[in-house]
Design a protein that fits this description.
Strand order of the largest sheet: 6-3-2-10-20
Shape: globular
Largest sheet: 5 strands, parallel
Low-confidence stretches: 1-17
Oligomer: single chain
Bound molecules: flavin-adenine dinucleotide
Number of domains: 2
CATH class of the largest domain: Alpha Beta
Distance between the termini: 31 Å
Strand content: 15-25%
Helix content: 25-40%
Mean pLDDT: 92
Number of strands: 24
Length: 398
Amino acid sequence: MMALRKGPKKGPKKGLKKGLKKELVLIGAGHAHAFVLEAFARTPEPGVSLTVISESRLAAYSGSVPAWLAGQCRLRETQIDVAGLCRRAGARLVEQRAVHVNALERCITLENGERLSFDLACINVGATLRQPPQQGSEALPFLLAMRPLAALAPRWQTLCTQVDKLPRESVQRVVSVGGGAAGSETLLAVLAALRARRPDVGFVGQLLSADGALLPGAGTLPRTLLRRALRRAGVRVQTDVRGEALGGGVLTRQGECIAADIVLWATGAVGHDWLAKSDLALDQRGFIKVAPTLEARGQRGIFAAGDCAAFTPALPKAGVYAVRMGPQLAANLRRACRHEPLASWQPPRRVLSLIGTGDGRAIASYGALGASGKWLWRAKKRIDARFISRFNPPFDRI
Ligand SMILES: Cc1cc2nc3c(=O)[nH]c(=O)nc-3n(C[C@H](O)[C@H](O)[C@H](O)COP(=O)(O)OP(=O)(O)OC[C@H]3O[C@@H](n4cnc5c(N)ncnc54)[C@H](O)[C@@H]3O)c2cc1C
């Protein structure tokens, strides 16, 4: 049976007693774990007791964020029903944040102080970002940070309420810090949504990228298409400018203060702080080093997938990789339960990304190839809706 205990640590867990169920604990309800739950719902694994630790009963799906900002779908349509998935998989859902993993003692500490023991564990908690420090005594711009995604909805509601109260003919400077897909796409979506909400207010867009080019890792054509879309939306792009803090606007490493009323913070992904306090091998950005089998380096029986896993060679932090890892992760967790040899996961050489541009169009980026059009926005919305409904059958809808 699952041990849920409070208080002083006990010694290392001895070998499994015959007849006892093996405890498989999934930490975080990220995309890869959605596939694991789906696989275990379809084919339950005898002798395995499954537990999911998730901050919430609903998990955010980033792909649908631009459509939701644009008012083209409801918030609920951008969320995976974790509780429903757990029910179908026969898994126990523990609605808590994990704050520590002790690999030696095989136990996970939760935010409320309780501890869960495990035989096998897998971590799929995504990434976070460094929130901008605040400097000086001047009024701060309104901050919309892109991670954690779950916090985006209440911030967006607050922003909309504030925007509704703006005087007519006023001007709002909207600055996005981060030249990746998330920063650019969200800026375009936010500008389009706010302009539609308050046509009598001027929303002026600006994008800061610490790199010399937008969309790091993408080909020249998708970058050019994105530049064009930003220009059409009246966004001024500044490359080689690193936003570092918030003061009266965005304070840059170069010592400039860029005037801003609304700031979208979409800087590079980093690992969650608590992972660094666990005895797991991490890369420089705080992500868990994994072998090609998705098992954590040097830790038998502990796996990691999605953004929080550091694969070699490094993969971009994109949901599509977490999705591709899912089925292989499910198979390897099953193999580990049965003491069978693990299989290696082969990342795709390139993946398709679809970036909404806020004007009913999207840009497709696939290696050096790129295209833009309304049909791509329709395709993106269809793909995202199909992904969400895969895990949220209609009978489980709220
Ligand atoms: C605005 C935006 C748009 C994006 N658009 C795209 C896109 O179109 N396509 C694409 O491929 N990628 C996109 N990305 C990147 C994508 O969001 C991530 O790469 C993807 O979500 C990673 O998936 P994951 O399964 O690793 O983790 P996540 O999807 O982040 O899931 C992690 C889960 O773990 C939970 N969790 C976190 N910490 C804990 C804890 N301590 N205890 C318990 N639970 C915890 C979280 O609540 C969350 O539910 C976008 C990112 C942003 C910010």
